[in-house]
Protein 1
Amino acid sequence: MSVAADTPVRINPGAVGFFRVCYHPTMLPPILSALSQHQIPERDRLNLLDDHFALARAGQCPLKTVLDLTRAYTGEDSYSVWSVLAQGLGSVRVLLQEMAYKAGDEVVFSELSPEEVGLNNLYTQLALPVYEKLGFDPKPEDSNNDSLLRPIILGVLGRARHPDVIAKARKAFDAHYASVMETPEGQPQEKLISPDLRTTIYSLCLRNGGAEVFQRLLTVSLHFAFLSLFLFSSP
C-alpha cells in the first residue's frame, strides 16, 4: 500500500488492539498536523498519548518525541485525554525534580531548573486556551466534561505558577474559610468552594502558601471532620 507523504497513518485506530504502537519518526509529522487541527477522534488522541508515555517509560521512545507530541494537544478539551496528558507530564515533572535534588539525606527544595521552567511553559501552552474557555468558577451551563476537566486544568496551571489561577485560588479559599468560621450555627454557609474544585484549590493554596495557610486548612478540615462525626453519630 502506498500513501502520500503528508497523509496521517494511524495504527490501531479506535484502540481496539491490546498493544503499543511505536511510530517511525517519519510517520509522526502528518499525525502531529492532524492532531493540531483536531482531525483525530478522541479515543485515538488518548491512545496516541498513552502509547507514547508508556514507550518512553520503557525506554523505547525518546522523551523529546513525547513532548513534541504533547504540543499538538494545545487547546485539547477532552477530560479523558487530559487525564492521560496531565498524568504523563506529572511523571516527567517528578523525574526532573529528582534529577535536580542533590545527593544525600538532607531535603533540599531547590529553585526550578531550566528544564522544569520549560515544562511549566509547556503546561501553560497546553492548558491556558482551555482555561480561557472554561473559566475558574463552575457555571450552570457546564457539561459533565467541563466539570471534570476544570480541576485538572486549574491544577496544571497552578503547578506552572500561573498568577491568575493562584490569585483566584487564594481568593476562593479566603472566602471559603470566612464562611466556614464566621457563619453563625444554623445559618447557611455561602461562598463555599465547589466540591468539584475543593481538593484542587486546597492543594494550590498549600503549595503556594506558608505556615498560616497550612493552619487555616487544618482548621477547616478539622471543622468538617467534627461536623461529619456529629451528623453521622446522631440518631
Note: Residues 163-234 form one domain.
Protein 2
Amino acid sequence: MELSTLSLLDSVLPHSKPQRVVWREVVPITEDPDQPFNLRLKLAAQAGIGLAAGVRFHFRGTQGLVVYMARGTTDINKLKSETNEQYLLSATDVIGSIVCLRNPRRDCLAERRQAREATRRRLRNKMLAVIRIGGPILREMLKREYDEGIVPVLYEDTPSSNISSSMDSRRSAYSLASFQKKTLSIKNRIIMAARKWKGANNDPPPPFSNVEALWTFSGCFLTILMLLYFSDFINEQNSQYSLVLGPFGALVTLQYSLTSAPASQPRNVILGQAISISIALCMTYTRLEANIRRSLGTALCVSLMARLGVTHPPAGAAALIFTGGGYTWVHMGIMLAGNVLAIISAAGINNFNVKRQYPTSWGFGYWIKYVCPRKGSKKGD
C-alpha cells in the first residue's frame, strides 16, 4: 500500500485515546468524609498499601477493571515510568483476555457435554435395538442349526452337549468370574481403608492467638450465662419446662471458634434444630425399643440435614436427647427461641472484633430456591 493511502486512512479512521495509568493515594481516600466507608479499602491502607491504580479493559463486549496496588514508600517516578506503564497496560490486556475467555469456554464445555450425552444416548438406543431385535433371531438360528445336526463352532469341543447345557456352563463361568471380581474388589477396598488409617499428613489448623482465645472465652461465657438466665425465667413461669442446655455447648463452640463454618450459620442452626427436634418428637410416638428409637431417630435427623444441606452438629445432639422421651412440642419452641438468642448474641459479640464476621450468610433464600426451584430453572441456579 502506498504512503499516501496510509496517510488517508490514518486521517479518516478514528483513534482511541491512549490509555494511561493514574496512581491515587489510598489513605486520603479512606479519610475523606465525603467518600462512603469501604472496609476493604480501609484494611488495604492499614496493611501498608499507599498507592492504587485502576486500568480498564474491554474485549468483545466484556468490560472490567484491573486494580494495581503499591506500597506507600514506593518511588512514584518508577511507577509512572514509560516501561512500567506499558508493562501494566500489557498485563491488563492479558488479564482482560483471560476474563473474556471464560464465557466462551463455559459455552464450549457445555456444548461438548451435550454432544457426549447425545452420543451416549444414541449408542444406548442402538445396543437396545440390537439386543431386542438380534437376540431372538440369533436364538432361532442356533436352534435351527442344532435341529439340522449342524453343531456351531462354539460347541465343537463338546459335540454331545446341547445349547442349554452350554449356556448353563457359560453362565456358571460368568458367575465365577463375577464372584472373583467382587472378591478382588472387597480385598482392594480393605487395603485402601487400611491405608487411609495412616492419615493424609495434612497440617492441623493453627491455634488462636491470646486475644482471639480471650474473645472466644468472653463470647461463650456471656452467651451461656444469658441462656441459663433464660432457662431459669422459663422454669419460673412453668416448672415443667426449661431449656435443654446440652446442645448449646456445641453451638457456642461453633459460633466462637469456627465462626465462618457453614454449620455455624443461622440457616443451619434454625433449620437443623427444627428438623431434628421435629423428627425426634415424632419418633417418641412409635413403639420401638428405646435404644432402637434413639439410634434410628438420630440417624434420620443427621442424614436428612445432610441431604438438605443444613448440617448442624448440635442438632444431632438434640435429636439424641429428644428421642429419649419426656419432652413436648413446647420444648421445641423453647429450644428454637434459645437458638435465636444465641445467634443474636454471637452476631453482637463477634462483629465487634475486626477479624471476625458473623454470620457470613443468612442463606434462607438460597435454601428455599434450592429445594423449591422456580419452573424452568435448575436447582441451585
Note: The beta strands are 23-25, 49-59, 62-71.
Protein 3
Amino acid sequence: MAALTQDRNTPRSEGDIRRGAVAAATLIYAGAMVMRNASGHLVEGQTATGLVGAGVAMERVDNSTGTAGALACDYRPGTFRFANSAGADEITIADIGAVAFAVDDQTVAKTDGTATRSPAGIIDAVDSYTRDADMNGAPDLLVGMAQLEVAIARDDVVMVGPVYPYTDKGGHLDSNGARWYGHQQAKVAAKILAGEGWQPLRPIEIEKSGATIFVHYHVPQPMLRSACRRRLLENAFIWRRPNI
C-alpha cells in the first residue's frame, strides 16, 4: 500500500490485555514471563535464542500435550518486577534503559549468556526488595506483600489498606474494628465507582541518612499521623509525607 496523502482514521486496540496462541508442549503459569517464538506462538520465559519478550501471563494455560495454537493465553505487556541474577549477570541501576535477557519464566539477567538468551525487555527500574524467608529458610513471598504487589500491578484489583489502625482481639478484628474497616471498604468502593481510583496507605521509599531512617509513604488522606510518634523517634524513624 502506498504512503498516505491525506489523514487516516487508524483503528486502535483498547485495553492492555492481549491474547496469543500458545506453542506446542508448553505450560505457562499465571504470573510467568511470556515470550514469542519464531512462529509467533507464546512460550514461557526460558534460556533460549530466537525469542522476544511479550509480557506476563494473566492465567495458567497447560498446552503440554497440545499442538501449536490449540490453546490461547491472556497476557499483559507492561513493566513488571522479575527476579534478578547474581554475579556478572546482576542488573544494577547503571543498566536502566538497557536490554534485559530472559533466564527463565521469572528471572532476568544483564547479559545474553554468550549468545544463549533472548531479550525479555528494557530495564525500567531496579529495586532492593528481597523476598521473605519461609519456615525452612527458603525464599518466600508473604501473602500480604503478594496482595499489595498484585493491587499495584493490576487495574482490576484494589487493596483497601492495612488493618492495624483498627481495634482487634489478638490479631482478629473485634466488633468495632470490623465496623470501622467496613466503613473504609465502603469509602474505597465509592471512590472506585466514581472513577477516582485508589491506592492504599503504604511505604513507597525508605532511605538512610547517617543514623536516621526516612520512610516515605503514599498517604491517601494527608497528613499521616502516628499514635506511637515518640517511640518511632526514639528508634530513629521519621515519618514524612512524600511529595506526590
Note: The chain is about 15% helix and 25% strand.
